Amino acid sequence: MKTLYAFSSPDGDVPVDDATFARPFIVRPLQDHPFITLGDYFLAVRDLVLRKEGQPLTALLSHLWKRSVEITDIDAITVRYEKYGTLYHISSVEIAAERKQIRLTVSAALTDESKEALDREFDLLERLGSEKSLSYLPHVYCKHTLQVRKAEGSVTFLMALSEWFDNYHEWHFSRDETGRQRIMVWDMKNGYRMLSEEEAYETIKQAATILTFYYDTKTYHRIFPWHHGGGDFVVRATEGNTDAHGFARGNLFSEHGEREGEAPTALPVEGATRAPVIDVKLVTARGYEPITLPAEDGEIAPLRAVILFFLETTVKMRLDKYEGMGESTWAKASVVAAAVDGFLRGLTLKESRTDTPAFKVNDVLAQLKSFTQDDLKGLLRTRMNQAAGRDTSDYAAISSHIDEHARDLHQAIQEQATTD
């Protein structure tokens, strides 16, 4: 079995040589660890995957591939450093065995803060995966601590192994050569590329659908916090057929959204044209908290709570960080229409399944349509002020765009037709 080490880049894998192995391990941006090296990190990821002589790995592969897999069947393992952020280091592990390949995600935490967060996220992903009839989140497999001992001392990593969304990529709001704002997909295999307006609309729509699907209409819990700046949503854009009426065939984000088995294949039909098929996933759930109001507002009614969730979602859908980690950026108005569309689609999806909301989708839409632009402005300002003390990083971007967002939101709501 060969074990290879590399860095992921838009130009393909960058192999890790001995000199790179000896470089200091970066704990967080601009902070090197005093004695742990990149090599120590890569070997720790390898040890996680091959712990107990590879028995947990072969058991997992046997389960996923529906056939017996032995450690001697594995030809090569590639540990690929994908990215690091303020909390975690993300690597992928690609396993090649008997003409089959699979890629898994390894999230690594070193500080006490990041370990607590990773522990919480793992448990939450496990719970949401078992409670929901559908899943747009990754499956989680295991978490373990791994100790690295050096002459200068020792450190302990907490690492979690989970599903890798193959051919899905992080994306961010960016500008093209003409200065027009668009969505750029950070495709580390085929190179960065811009989405078309139609693809961008569908990407935002599906992201809002996913968040709404996980919103609990009884307890008012929702996935929170999340942020485009953290690369929480990933997208896969592939070619698919549209029929003569313009409907996509073989869309991987179907009304049922199951991931079991092979994805449906788009078959050519007479009069069909080629159109991109967009599929969006959410890579993690950092928390699951209820919508709250100040104590003086008393108990929240289900319809009131879902309106607050809606307002929060439409605002956050427009927020990103420059290059994923820089200053806050604000997306253009077309994002709002897509977010409204996705929110209503998410409620419709919930209404069609066992997770029946305490209200009908048309009740929510009627309530939203009754709001004037000034009503929305007042609700947004109140909601923003409530959240300002907790998350100040985007406060300036939001506060300077409240009037604009209320206008865009009002227009997008009024353009929505009553659902069937």
How would you describe this protein?
The relative contact order is 0.10. Helix 5 packs across helix 7, helix 6 runs antiparallel to helix 7 and helix 7 crosses helix 11. 34% of the residues lie in helices and 29% in strands. The protein contains 11 helices and 19 strands. The protein folds into 2 domains: 162 residues, no CATH class; 246 residues, no CATH class. About 8% of the residues have low confidence. It has 420 residues and is an alpha+beta fold. It has a 7-stranded mixed sheet, sandwiched between helices. Strands 10, 11, 12, 14, 15 and 16 form a 6-stranded antiparallel sheet that branches.
Report the total helices. Answer: 11
In sequence order, what are the helices and strands, one letter per element? EEHEEHHEEEHEEEEEHEEEEEHEEHHHHH
Average of the residue pLDDT scores: 87
Q: What share of residues is helical?
A: 25-40%
Query: What spatial order of strands do you see in the largest sheet?
Result: 2-1-5-6-7-9-8
> Helices and strands: which structural class?
alpha+beta
Distance between the termini: 56 Å
User: Which strand-content bin applies to the residues?
Assistant: 25-35%
Largest sheet: 7 strands, mixed
What low-confidence regions span 5 or more consecutive residues with pLDDT below 50?
Answer: 241-273
Radius of gyration: 23 Å
Overall, the morphology is globular
Topology overview:
Layout: E1 2-7, E2 14-15, H1 18-21, E3 24-28, E4 31-37, H2 38-49, H3 55-65, E5 74-84, E6 89-97, E7 100-109, H4 112-131, E8 140-150, E9 153-163, E10 169-175, E11 181-185, E12 193-194, H5 197-213, E13 221-223, E14 233-242, E15 248-249, E16 273-282, E17 288-290, H6 302-316, E18 319-321, E19 328-330, H7 334-351, H8 361-370, H9 373-388, H10 395-399, H11 402-414
Helix pairs in contact: 5-7, 6-7, 7-11, 9-11
